[in-house]
Amino acid sequence: MQSPGLLAILFGLIDTILALVIVVLIVFVVISWLYAFDIVSRRNGFVSSIYEFCRRVTDPILRPLRRIIPPIAGVDLSVLVLLLVIQLLRQLLPWLHGVLTGTGPVL
């Protein structure tokens, strides 16, 4: 069995990190909806700590998008755009790996 190259490991790590960012974004959105519809109290320490962690992880990524994409009817679409961009990057990673290693098609 051939061991995976360093490039394959790196691309696998990037894909895993992007997948984790997707999970954090989804948790962030769900908790913000729970707060908005007053299903969960902001005084709940456990939920507040998870929300604060998600906010601190996602805000640096979302801030530039929020400057470009204004809220529409009070709905922040920057999260949706970021999810789509991350998913596109995850779809392009195997192709890029094939191009860089010479094992896949260029186009």
Features of the shown structure:
single chain; 107 residues; mainly alpha; 3 helices
What do these coordinates show?
The chain has one domain (7-100). It is an all-alpha fold. It has helices spanning 6-36, 45-68, 78-101. It is elongated. It starts with 5 loop residues before the first helix and ends in a 6-residue tail after the last helix.
Summarize the structure.
The chain is mainly α. The chain contains 3 helices and no strands.
The biggest beta sheet reads: none
Q: Please report the total strand number as a whole number.
A: 0
Instruction: Give me the number of helical elements.
Output: 3
User: If you average the pLDDT, what whole number results?
Assistant: 92
The oligomerization state is: single chain
Fraction in helix: over 70%
The SSE string, one letter per element, is: HHH
Strand content: under 5%
* Structural class by sheet pairing and helices: mainly alpha
Number of domains: 1
Shape: elongated
Rounded to the nearest angstrom, the radius of gyration is 18 Å
Spans where pLDDT lies below 50 across 5 or more residues: none
Terminal CA distance reads: 29 Å
Please give the structural blueprint.
Blueprint: H1 6-36, H2 45-68, H3 78-101
Helix pairs in contact: 1-2, 1-3, 2-3
